[in-house]
Amino acid sequence: MKKGWNLFKKVWKFFLLLFLILLTFSYAMFQGGFVSWFIFYSFLPFAIYCVALSFYSLNELEITRVLPKTDYNAGEPLRVTVTVKRTKAFPLFYLLMEDHLDDPLKFANQQRPAKALLLPGMKKEFSYEYIIDELPRGEHFFNNFTVKIGDPLGLFEKEKIFTADGKIIVYPAYSELLYRPFENHYDQGLTASRERVQRDTSMAIGVRDYQPGDRFSWINWKATAKRNEIMTKEFEQRQSHDVFVVMDCVPDKRFEPVVSFTASLLRAILKKGAQTGLLTISKERASFPIRGGEQHLRQLFYHLAKIEAKSITPLEKVIETEGLFIQQAVSYLLVTAQLTKPLIEKASFLGQRKGSITLFLLKGQTEVPSENERSLIAIANARGVRIVMVHEGDYESAFSGVNVY
């Protein structure tokens, strides 16, 4: 149906163009004089160009999209260069071009839009550039370009969709934190130790896969030869610093700060030399075991780049139903933007059975706790649940002791 309609429009425009040529020629013949023939000859180049444009094929265009890199952090700018090459120097009056972006990129602030009107003329190669000021977190795909050309009279227009695949991954923004286990109290108050987590290298308790940062002397050569993979001795820690982070994925206006703080927290823990795991339940359940190393950090960041606030299960239900909490006796860090009494009750129950519980409550830059939240914080303190209030943009104070309730 659509093809038939397009064919009808093309035939109709040809007849219209032919009618206009005959009309101007008849006017010149019957009227005579300089003006009438000037009108005819002035119109003739436009008519010839319209006919030529109708036979011009857009298939000769070769469009490439140049992305400076594929990995970004949220808030970084993106500068994209689009280049068009063709084999024929056919004069193009204009070329309207648009790079189709996904919704997060489309609604981001664009310093230069992804849609541009170009005047290529006889050029065989030309380009344009568009800039997105602040990239939103996520995995973004580039698929199609729409190209449209036309004549000055607006009689003939051609449009074609070109496929040019591309992808970027935008990791969550993070801040530099100095992680310190909250169990470390001193007479002077809460202080942050800059020492990395130490392991007792005199006692090997097993073997594991090699991780970047492991010492050469830790390699277990017998296990390496047996498995044909580099295996490292697993040593007993002088003190357990294993941490398991649970991030709330319930829809909330502060979800992006929740993701950003979680990324900062995980990075700080691993940078300290401790090991950490992560649990999120959004559209799907995702659990990462407690590990260390740079590769583990990259896996966690890639997951946080794609996570969405699509959970229908509140955080207290996650704590109640997850079987992994029964199996592990580690420090638990809960990151959420919503504080409720059921959450405090479940966190208190988990802390009594498995160890320390710290709940990070994300707030806006100028937000203060409400009366209801203050009463809930008092209940949490009475039940042994530590509440740390974290304000957006001030993640560094999370372990300073100032906002610990």
Summarize the structure.
With 405 residues, the chain is of the alpha/beta class.
If you had to describe this structure to a student in words, what would you say it looks like?
Mean pLDDT is 83; it is low at 184-202. With 405 residues, the protein is of the alpha/beta class. Strand 15 and strand 16 form a beta hairpin. A six-stranded mixed beta sheet has the order 16-15-14-17-18-19. A five-stranded mixed beta sheet has the order 2-9-8-4-6. Strands 1-3-7-5 form a four-stranded antiparallel beta sheet, with no helix packed on it. The chain has three domains: 67-171, Immunoglobulin-like (Sandwich), CATH 2.60.40; 185-194 and 240-399, 3-Layer(aba) Sandwich (Rossmann fold); 198-238, no CATH class. The protein has helices at 2-31, 33-55, 103-106, 221-227, 255-272, 294-306, 315-321, 324-327, 341-354, 371-382; strands at 62-66, 71-73, 78-85, 95-99, 110-112, 115-118, 125-132, 138-150, 157-171, 185-186, 189-190, 199-209, 231-237, 243-247, 276-281, 285-291, 331-336, 357-363, 386-391. Helices cover 33% and strands 30% of the residues. The chain is elongated, with a radius of gyration of 32 Å. Helix 5 (255-272) runs antiparallel to helix 6 (294-306).
